[in-house]
Amino acid sequence: xxxxxxxxxxxxxxxxxxxxxxxxxxxxxxxxxxxxxxxxxxxxxxxxxxxxxxxxxxxxxxxxxxxxxxxxxxxxxxxxxxxxxxxxxxxxxxxxxxxxxxxxxxxxxxxxxxxxxxxxxxxxxxxxxxxxxxxxxxxxxxxxxxxxxxxxxxxxxxxxxxxxxxxxxxxxxxxxxxxxxxxxxxxxxxxxxxxxxxxxxxxxxxxxxxxxxxxxxxxxxxxxxxxxxxxxxxxxxxxxxxxxxxxxxxxxxxxxxxxxxxxxxxxxxxxxxxxxxxxxxxxxxxxxxxxxxxxxxxxxxxxxxxxxxxxxxxxxxxxxxxxxxxxxxxxxxxxxxxxxxxxxxxxxxxxxxxxxxxxxxxxx
Length: 364
Ligand SMILES: Cc1cc2nc3c(=O)[nH]c(=O)nc-3n(C[C@H](O)[C@H](O)[C@H](O)COP(=O)(O)OP(=O)(O)OC[C@H]3O[C@@H](n4cnc5c(N)ncnc54)[C@H](O)[C@@H]3O)c2cc1C
What we know:
The structure is a single chain. By secondary structure, the chain is α+β, with helices and mostly antiparallel strands. It has two domains: about 5-45 and about 100-175 and about 270-345, 3-Layer(bba) Sandwich (FAD/NAD(P)-binding domain), CATH 3.50.50; about 45-100 and about 175-265, D-Amino Acid Oxidase, Chain A, domain 2. It contains eight helices and 21 strands. The strands form four sheets. Strands 1, 2, 8, 9, 10, 11, 19 and 20 form an eight-stranded mixed β-sheet that branches. A hairpin with a 2-residue loop joins strand 10 (about 135-140) and strand 11. It binds flavin-adenine dinucleotide (FAD). Flavin-adenine dinucleotide (FAD) binds near residues 34, 126, 267 and 295.
């Protein structure tokens, strides 16, 4: 091997880690570059039951048995009608999903790939990449220090920022400007039942996911241009949440107000215009990102990583169809998602004059 490593993966989120696991299974050495210290707060907490086969296939299902993650038994919602309803997972093939402690889950995934031989470069941000005759030269930055790594194949797993694709001059098609504003709240009692709570309102929708340690992840979703800027203030955010019919009652009792800070998260449905090329591919949110209503982002990142690893292994063995085939799989998944997304939003016919809902009724 002429280069330092076969595969360099930029980004140590679920997609980067799943790609590394899949490469390891094919006997291919890889390293993950992840900037900054591990995050203290991240949204994205619900994994649906139908993720189970994929979690087993990736060898990480046992990680979710840890009590840091709660079982999720269904969805409670007010959507398309003023009346609250619920769906239970009990009659499905896999009878529970998970409300994951996201930070803990990523720590578990990191420990898992490290113990399986992946080189993990913590605090290393990819700041530049240059195509070589064979593979890439990648510049990594840690504070004031930079270093260069040569790799045969480069993976963009940098999430919505899609840094590698941006270096290559590629664009992202954004279907909307959906944005989430979130806060982690400590409740006096554990929320029962362990459901995901979703509630449509005139200008968007709320979701709440109970987590371990009596925490509740609370998010309001709307379009960036429609966001009431006062929602950044914790009191205002909480007061608005408390006014809702389904989620409001979850906030009754002694709410611990310490450390509650709101944070903004881009959450648009978006697609990178090109998801692979000569010795590189994009995976997870970097390739395509989903509306959180779908609860599909983490599963898609893990699933995409699984296929990406195999495609890279095949491409490194000169199989020309490997990367187009990978792209076919993820593009098809995105088309299926778009249909389901449209159906879900079209169920909501209240608030005829609301810009948020009018935009979704028009479709993409
Ligand atoms: C408000 C909101 C709620 C959500 N709720 C859910 C949910 O309930 N269920 C669900 O399944 N999904 C949910 N999602 C989506 C889910 O969080 C994402 O789909 C998932 O995190 C994608 O994983 P990823 O690995 O592709 O990207 P990320 O998790 O974003 O990881 C990308 C990584 O790349 C690193 N990185 C960035 N730039 C560089 C660089 N230059 N060099 C090296 N590394 C870099 C970052 O530090 C990060 O660790 C939600 C998203 C939002 C916004």
